[in-house]
Amino acid sequence: MESTHRDRCAITGIGATEFSRDSRRSVLSLAGEACLAAIADAGLEPHDIDGIVRCDVDEVMHNDLAHSLGLTDVTYWGATGVGG
To answer: Under DSSP, is residue 52 helix (H, G, I), strand (E, B) or coil?
Structure first.
């Protein structure tokens, strides 16, 4: 049987931080803000999130992001190269 994620996962919201040259904030803080904006844009709450996919050159690791967002049921994480 072929394993597929069809109809099992979705990107439903987007989020970003304010653009600046020097925010004086940690990368984790910025990532958390962008994630919370994306979660809100999707009409969800952090407790609805069960997976994280990150770019393999990101400085923030999935477990640090999950912890900072208070995610308690992350059952999937992955990394992809630059450009998706």
So the answer is: strand
